[in-house]
Design goal:
- The chain has two domains: 172 residues, P-loop containing nucleotide triphosphate hydrolases (Rossmann fold, 3-Layer(aba) Sandwich); 61 residues, no CATH class.
- The C terminus is likely disordered.
- The strands form three sheets. A six-stranded mixed β-sheet has the order 5-6-7-3-8-9, sandwiched between helices. A three-stranded antiparallel β-sheet has the order 2-1-4, covered by helices on one side. It has a two-stranded antiparallel sheet with strand order 10-11.
- With 253 residues, the protein is α/β, with parallel strands linked by helices.
- The chain has eight helices and eleven strands.
- The protein starts with 5 loop residues before the first strand and ends in a 22-residue tail after the last strand.
Amino acid sequence: MSGGEPLVTLSGVSVALDGLPVLDRIELTIHRGEIVTVVGPNGSGKSTLVRSIVGSIPTTGGSLRRARGLRIGYVPQRLAIDPSMPVTVERFMNLPRRRPAGEVARALAEAGLPGVQRQQIAGLSGGQLQRVLLARALLDSPDLLILDEATAGLDQPAVAAFYARIEAVRAAQGCAVLMVSHDLQIVMRASDRVVCLNGHVCCEGTPEIVSSSPAYHRLFGRDTAETLALYRHHHTHSHDGPCADHAHGEDAA
């Protein structure tokens, strides 16, 4: 579904952490209305890419442009909840500033979790908690919704249901969605475009039922890759060297 206005454009973006290169000359544009998924092994720079787009990590080279007035909603990988702390969903949704009750109810309904305002956060299942985090990200009607491993720890049915909800949100709001995920089989089916990252962009393109990429096989193994809905392979650089040469340990940061 690319073709909408460009919301974020990365041109030759590089990032170094503690003097070590993590991202090398990234070229990426995210358009309104499309779902883009970033995949790659641990330490490939996925979280650094997301944090650079959000603005919490500075770039060290290239250009990162955001559309004027861009609103970003962010769903993190996990949220540590103290089970002894009595916090309702409604109170959580009103942090750090109070929201009209109607806005809270609308966002929860959009996230597929209506009528839970009075429930305790600590009593929610993992899937329910992630939907609450999604609802909170939707409160400001974002132009770009970013999910950084937002389904980590969920079982497969919960993962599939969550991504189905993301597709519904995109359809209803017309926002762009940028997802980082290890749930390859499910998330690639839900994507308009897939970016294979390992310090640099190895490959990118649309998911395909039958397609193959040497770079993807190197990163995930041929047997795994051939069982998934793969993407059409587009690139502007050589794959003569193994992508693994660009791996760094930033995802744990």
